[in-house]
Amino acid sequence: MARALTFLCISTYFKGNDFLKACKEAGNKVFLITAKKLEHKPWVRDSVDEFFYVEEDEDGKYNMNEIINGLAYVMRDRPIDRVVALDDFDVEKAAHIREYFRIPGMGQTTGRYFRDKLAMRTKAAESGILVPGFSALFNDDAINDFIEKYPGPWMIKPRSEASATGIKKMENAGELWETIHQLGDKRHAYLVEQYKPGHVYHVDSISYNGRVIFSWSSKYLSPPFDVAHGGGIFTSVTVPFDSSEEHALETLAVDLLKAFGLKHSASHTEVIRCHDDGKYYFLETSSRVGGANLSEMVEASSGINLWKEWAKMETAEAKGDNYKLPPVRKDYSGIIISLARQEWPDLSVFNDPEIVWRMNEPYHVGLVVRAKSREKVIELLDKYADIIQKDYHASAPAPDRPAH
After folding, report:
1. Which of residues 127 and 231 earns the better pLDDT score?
2. Rounded-to-5 percentages of helix, strand, coil across the chain
3. Residue 392 DSSP class
4. Is the pTM of this model over 0.70?
């Protein structure tokens, strides 16, 4: 009898329980590397065969040499067949481990397209995909050329942080140069990009054998940057089915993931439709399930749990079996999330039958709704936003680097 496959999962954050569970249910052995400080989180322990806890340094980084040495010891009697990164911050770690131990899957070059904002923009532009004007911060003359070519305002973004962390917006060249100088010796780890006002969308997908087999488009009603920096309420809603919007977003995501060489993974891609020219521009992508509980929203409308299907697809691929996506439903869904003043807010005031998920995190209020019509979803989100703003909402300044 063939031995069970062993999946090594890595997560710097407490997330991915659905993946771990589905991976175990598919008959695999499951190992998890995570931070020591997350040891007491409610992981699905009966789905994980072994935990490996890592102490982070003061920057929240893992010592990869220690991890490689530890895994080399483990692999003497417990071979590892696949390595899966459950969070953005783990993509490089997983690629490093795969390359070192020659385990199949995404290597470091492809991994960079999904982590390094400079690499992903350069590759997208080379592949004929529209991107807002951008420049590395390596060379002063190149930055001045960029300023001349692309009028402000501009954003300075870290090349490898997830979410809207560490992003700053500048209105004029003086301000921009001042920010660059403040970065000092770290400026090479950032890029500058032209700020284009517009609607921001996210496309959540699953790729199998290099093809996108599932793609779901949604529109942020309040973009993540505005929420992180303006203390707003986070909302997103499914894009109208069979609309020109949906077709444009799906086409861009498919072209992009093909150009980046994504073989087998979930992915989350962000796109902006600019107010000035109506065109769709690529913002960023990642080879994992979208954060901010977007998977709950995608599942509410499509019936597809991205975490579970990713685990089932990875297992089928590793075994050389065929993977088939379950039937897809087409309902509309929306999500609303806000920081709350109360530690455990009373959500009983939200009692509409359309509510399919409630957030269970201290100092947060969050809901997912599902309905046959998009108008109904938006009407409910608007109603909840008013209630949350009045009775629950709290805001905190955006961190310079993510908190766990």
Report:
1. 127
2. 35, 25, 35
3. T
4. yes
Bridge partners (DSSP) listed for residue 102: none
Confidence of residue 35 (pLDDT cuts 50, 70, 90): very high
CB 206 within 8 A of CB 325: yes
Mention every residue, 6+ apart, whose C-beta is less than 8 A from residue 95. 85, 105, 106, 107, 108, 110, 111
Is beta strand 332-339 parallel, antiparallel or unpaired with respect to 134-136?
unpaired
Would you tell me how many other CB atoms lie within 10 Å of the CB of residue 29?
Answer: 19
Distance between first and last Cα of the chain: 42
pLDDT grade, residue 404 (50/70/90)? very low
Question: In 10 A of CB 79, how many CB atoms?
Answer: 13
Q: Give the phi and the psi of residue 177 in degrees, each rounded to 5.
A: -65, -35
Strand order in the sheet with 332-339: 280-286, 265-274, 198-208, 211-222, 234-238, 332-339, 364-371, 355-358
Please answer whether residues 209 and 166 qualify as being in contact, where contact means their C-beta atoms are separated by less than 8 angstroms: no
Beta bridge partners of 268: 204, 286
Task: Give the other-Cβ count within 10 Å of 366's Cβ.
Answer: 23
Structure tokens at 133: 């004007």
Candidates 62, 92, 84; CA nearest to 10 is 84
Q: Which amino acid is at 362?
A: P
Our separate counts of H helices and E strands in the chain read 12, 16
Pick the closest to residue 281 from 271, 292, 290, 291 (CA basis).
271
- Which tokens belong to 108? 């470091």
Distance CA 177, CA 229 (A): 21
Least confident of 96-100, 186-190, 227-231, 268-272: 227-231
Residue 165: the pLDDT is 62
Nearest to 293 by CA among 231, 336, 323, 246: 336
Whole-angstrom distance, CA of residue 223 vs CA of residue 220: 5
| Paired residues of 53 in beta bridges | 34
